[in-house]
Specification:
Blueprint (H helix, E strand, L loop, with lengths): L1 E4 L5 H10 L1 E4 L6 H4 L5 E6 L7 H5 L6 E4 L9 H6 L3 E3 L6 H16 L2 H9 L18 E5 L3 H12 L3 E5 L9 E2 L2 H7 L2 E4 L13 H6 L5 E4 L8 H10 L4 E4 L19 E3 L8 H20 L12
Parallel strand pairs: 1-2, 1-3, 3-4, 4-5, 6-7, 6-9, 7-8, 9-10, 10-11, 11-12
């Protein structure tokens, strides 16, 4: 039997899988035919980039489980998996602390214009200190779009900065924070941070209309999924100075094209989808996912909350 990896995973998790079955790392799903006998594949694992499509699953008749070492499932065709009786495993909640901390880091960096200032100092332009003026977060309003585990943790951290927390969620509420409509949140917030899942209903949740509602100096932060934002509309808004800045760990697509204009805008700071890749979280989510995949393959019961049921 073969366990197919579409991306590298933590070495401890890889070792766990290798002890159970032959493991193969494919550069892409298209390399499957050249890499492994597809009839032998019983499990496929990915992280954030490798896509487990219906077509890939159909090419592996013995497939029993597909998994993502992470919290989102937008790169797995979960409907196709369920139709084929294939278990879907992921690691909900495993990235909460790391993603929340990264969100705060991006928010602080954007608020204090860290990227252009640090770049100027690297170019021996100490006088840049008189050019850039950041904003203080104390007393400002933060609008949190999506109240999953990461969104709630960001709310807690933002309160520690003395920020007023506004929230909007399609599915949940938290009585500790003021819940408002999305339009109201966009109109009132000095910082808008996205923590919603990417679904057909939330794709381009932030577009031309929504950007026009934001304050001229408002900051937009995204550590969720790039597809939540209409990037063309965002680029236009930033070039017009319609909002104050954008900081993100995710784009659509990833990696971005070399011509992506957001990357050349001084009001933009982007990190390469690394919010969850800390020493603790990367290992934890990979090991947890591997353990649950092995449970399925052994015929044991995997951790209940790690089994996705549509």
């Amino acid at each position: 039997m073969t366990i197919l990896l579409l991306e590298t995973i933590h070495e401890q998790a890889h070792g766990m899988l290798a002890d159970h079955d032959h493991t193969v790392l494919a550069d892409s799903a298209d390399d499957l035919e050249q890499t492994v006998q597809r009839e032998q594949v019983v499990a496929i694992l990915t992280r954030g980039r490798g896509r487990i499509s219906a077509a890939l699953m159909a090419r592996c008749p013995g497939l029993r489980v597909v998994a993502r070492c992470g919290v989102g499932l937008d790169n797995i065709d979960v409907q196709a998996a369920h139709e084929r009786g294939i278990a879907v495993i992921y690691a909900p909640g495993s990235t909460t602390a790391a993603v929340a901390e990264h969100t705060l880091m991006l928010m602080l960096a954007a608020a204090r214009k860290l990227h252009p200032i640090a770049t100027a100092v690297s170019d021996n332009d100490w006088a840049a200190r008189d050019t850039y003026r950041g904003i203080e977060l104390t007393g400002k309003s933060i609008g949190i779009v999506g109240l999953g585990a990461a969104g709630r943790r960001v709310a807690e951290l933002a309160q520690a900065f003395g920020m007023q927390v506004l929230t909007w969620s399609r599915t949940s509420r938290d009585s500790r924070y003021e819940s408002v409509s999305l339009d109201t949140l966009l109109e009132r917030a000095d910082v808008v941070t996205l923590h919603a899942a990417l679904t057909p209903a939330t794709r381009h949740l932030i577009g031309v209309r929504e950007l026009a509602l934001m304050k001229p100096q408002a900051l937009l932060i995204n550590t969720a999924r790039g597809g939540l934002i209409d990037q063309r509309a965002l680029g236009d808004a930033l070039e017009r100075g319609a909002i104050g800045g954008f900081a993100a760990d995710v784009l659509d697509p990833e990696p971005p094209a070399a011509s992506e204009r957001l990357l050349r805008n001084p009001s933009v700071l982007v990190t390469p989808h690394i919010a969850a890749l800390t020493d603790v979280t990367y290992r934890a989510m990979c090991v947890r996912t591997a353990a649950n995949v092995l449970a399925v393959l052994r015929g044991d019961q995997p951790e209940r909350e790690s089994v996705y049921n549509a």
